Amino acid sequence: GKMGIALAQAALHRGAAVTLVHSITGELSLSGVRAIAVTSAQEMRQAMLECFHDADLTVMAAAVADVKPVDRSNQKLPKRSLPNSLPLAPVADIVAELGNLKQPHQKLIGFAAQTGDIVKPALEKLRAKKLDVIAANPIDKIGAGFGSNTNQAILINTAGKQVEIAPCSKLEMAHRLLDFAIER
User: Fold this and answer.
1) CA 47 to CA 29: how far, in whole Å?
2) Which residues make Cβ contacts (< 8 Å) with residue 76, sequence separation at least 6?
3) Are 163 and 114 in contact (CB under 8 A)?
4) Which DSSP letter does residue 146 get?
5) Adjacency order of strands within the sheet including 107-114
6) What is 2-66+87-182's CATH number?
7) What is the mean pLDDT of residues 36-50?
């Protein structure tokens, strides 16, 4: 999405070699960025696992999904054939898997799209997924999160430091997040 593209741009501005694994959302033209388009959570998982070992810094801007339908059809089902309830299965937690694979020289950053109290669940995700930094997004606020050109967050690291980022462009947010992540 837009935040992932902004993060790729910010890293590119800083001279990084950038690989962007993204869903197919139209034409993506970021000169100098290795772009890998995926159409499913499984394809994203595979691409991330293939790229991760070469990365010093990995930012997971959004979770693909938490669940998926158990059954998949390659054709349109007539309304009368649809079940009354839709059985769901969990989707692999890519960022948690990367956290388990992370080496000491690597940093892993995640996002927590939250409503209400955004800090407590973000802290839980930071620890459970073995992240170095998490950006807690208040997606119930106007101009933050999905589809917007702006964002805001509370950035949290493993030492417990928290920095609040007021509403700003997603590119500015990306730069502020990278500054926070590489801070010594």
Assistant:
1) 19
2) none
3) no
4) T
5) 57-60, 107-114, 133-138, 150-157, 162-169
6) 3.40.50.10300
7) 93
